[in-house]
Amino acid sequence: MGPMSAEIVAVCLGPGGIPKAPVEEAQVERLGLVGDGHRFHLHGGEDRAVCLISTEVYESLREDDVTCEPPGAFGENVLTRGLDDHALRPGDRLALGDEVVVEIHDVRVPCKTLKSIDPRFPDLLLGRSGWVCRVVEPGTLRPGMAITVLAR
């Protein structure tokens, strides 16, 4: 996997559901971002502690006439720019800034909550729905921090 220039565009929190709101910074712990909630019990947990999605996904959905504005519209915790989603796999680790390390657990499965954005969801998001991650190293996240793909 070659080097990618990637960054955190936004860090988002919410009480549960969508959208989540951007914040200036957030603390990341084993079970996710402090202050972030989940509406359903299957959302969250150690394997789904942090949800990532890219600005590139938002851009591709605009081409399908989906009207939604980042950050947080899809309930993501971290909006990224510059990661190659096609090169990432479960088990890959990402350094988010200088402290936080997450491990990709799985592709995010788009859920029916997203139908409130567009009735074509969740089908329209298949293959471009982002990632759910475990927290390996906790710490602080802020927009503008670099993202580094660590060796597999």
**Can you tell me the CATH topology?**
M1 Pyruvate Kinase, Domain 3
**Secondary-structure element pattern, one letter each:** EEEEEHEEEEEE
Q: Using the 3D structure, state the CATH architecture.
A: Beta Barrel
Q: Going across the major beta sheet, what is the strand order?
A: 1-6-5-9-8-7-11
CATH class: Mainly Beta
What count of helical segments does DSSP give?
A: 1
**CATH H-level superfamily title:** PK beta-barrel domain-like
Low-pLDDT parts are: none
Summarize this structure briefly.
This protein is mainly β and 152 residues long. It contains 1 helix and 11 strands; from the N terminus they run E-E-E-E-E-H-E-E-E-E-E-E. The protein has a single domain (6-149), classed as M1 Pyruvate Kinase, Domain 3.
